[in-house]
Write a structure and sequence with these properties.
The chain is mostly helical. 68% of the residues lie in helices and 0% in strands. The protein has two domains: 1-49, no CATH class; 51-122. The longest helix is centred in the last third of the chain and has 39 residues, at 84-122.
Length: 141
Amino acid sequence: MIYTTQQLELLAHIRAENEKFTADAKADGAIMIITPSDDIDLWIRMGANNIEQYTRIQLEGEISDMFKEIYGIRPGTCNTDATIEQLQAELDGLYASMRVDAEREKAWKEEESRKIQARKARNKYQPNNVFGGLKQMIQKS
C-alpha cells in the first residue's frame, strides 16, 4: 500500500512516542509495558490519517476510560466538535476529579482507623481480679 506523507509522519510519531514511553517505563522499573500498536493500516481503518486525528482518538478513548473509572459507566457520546485542547482539558478535569476522590477516601479511611484505634483503647481488656495486687502487698509486708 502507498501511504501519504501525513500517514508516514503518523507512523513515525507513534513509534517515537512508544519508544519514549517504553524508556520512561523501564527507568521507573515497570515490569509490563503496553504501548499503542504501530500498525498504520489499523489506525487508517480507525480514521486516523494524521497525528491530529490519532491524538483525538487517543484522547477520546482515555476520556471514556477515565469517565467509566470514576462514574461506573461510559459517557454516551464524545463531543466531536471539541478541539484537541478542549479534549485534553476534559481529560485533565477527570484526572483532577479522581485525585480529589482518592484524597477524600484516604482521609475517610484514616479517620475510621483513628476511631477504631480509639475504641480499642477504650475497650482494652482490664482484668477484674479480686486478688490483683495481692502479690505486691505480700512482698511489702
